[in-house]
Design a protein that fits this description.
single chain; Rossmann fold; 7-stranded mixed sheet; 10 helices; 7 strands; methyltransferase activity; tRNA processing; EC 2.1.1.-
């Protein structure tokens, strides 16, 4: 990894564990299915030039490849991309870039940029968003989802983790699959507005799933939970309570 991005999280050597722990659970499945649902509501017709920035093992890339889009899948982890190459072997329109998303050529313009569950792993998340905007074509769509700092505080108060909160969410032995830095939705929305983008969609992702007292409900009543997420996830106040926040914004045209 390049020195200037040495604080950004890579999943080399734990990519398979990441795949299992995230997408093999109801929380990962629900996050993906909700993002997919919202994204497909706004995605322009194929083919579009798409950048899946920090796309990991290619779960969302596969969804878009099946629709016929031309996709560059980027990730810091070569291990994650190797898993993606196997998963996406039948989709020749997918290409790959291993390295910091900041190093993708600014000369390459994309109609759609996805950056899902990435910002919370970066040392300078808003700098990364600014870099992505230079790669977004005029009139293009930016889809961001990220670990919600407000919901992170809310949930830890509910769980009674007061010492963790008072230590500014820093623990001596951090689990590598736990995000480094939750991100504030209001800050991201203000940043996008200041950059001249028009926000066309906001949603909370997992507004209810993570808060149910009986965790078995996450499995036994998965479809009912998902239905409530879709019913209320874009409505105030629930949009602000999702453990992840999703926003789609359009860059001004020329």
């Amino acid at each position: 990894m390049h020195k200037q991005y040495s604080q950004d999280q890579s999943f080399d050597r734990i990519a398979e564990k990441f795949e299992k722990n995230i997408y093999g659970t109801t929380k990962g499945r629900l996050r993906h299915e909700l993002l997919e649902h919202y994204l497909l509501q706004y995605l322009p017709p194929a083919p579009q030039r798409v950048l899946d920035a920090g796309g990991g093992t290619g779960v969302m890339t596969k969804t878009l490849a099946q629709l016929g889009h031309q996709i560059l899948l980027n990730d810091l982890s070569e291990d994650a991309l190797n898993i993606a190459r196997q998963k996406l072997a039948d989709y020749p329109q997918v290409s790959y870039h291993c390295g910091p998303l900041q190093e993708i050529s600014e000369q390459t313009q994309f109609d759609v940029i996805l950056c899902h569950a990435v910002l919370e792993w970066l040392s300078q998340p808003l700098d990364a968003v600014e870099g992505l905007l230079t790669k977004l074509a005029p009139g293009g769509q930016l889809s961001l989802s990220f670990f919600n700092s407000d919901a992170h505080l809310f949930s830890n108060v509910i769980y009674g983790n007061f010492d963790y909160i008072d230590k500014d969410f820093v623990v001596p032995n951090r689990v590598r699959l736990n995000p480094n830095k939750a991100v504030c939705p209001a800050q991201v929305l203000a940043f996008l507005e200041a950059a001249g983008l028009t926000v066309i969609h906001k949603a909370g992702i997992r507004c209810f799933h993570d808060y149910v007292r009986d965790k078995s409900i996450q499995t036994t009543h998965y479809e009912q939970l998902k239905a409530k997420e879709l019913e209320y996830g874009t409505s105030h106040p629930f949009v602000w309570l999702g453990r992840y926040f999703h926003v789609i914004a359009i860059k001004p045209g020329e």
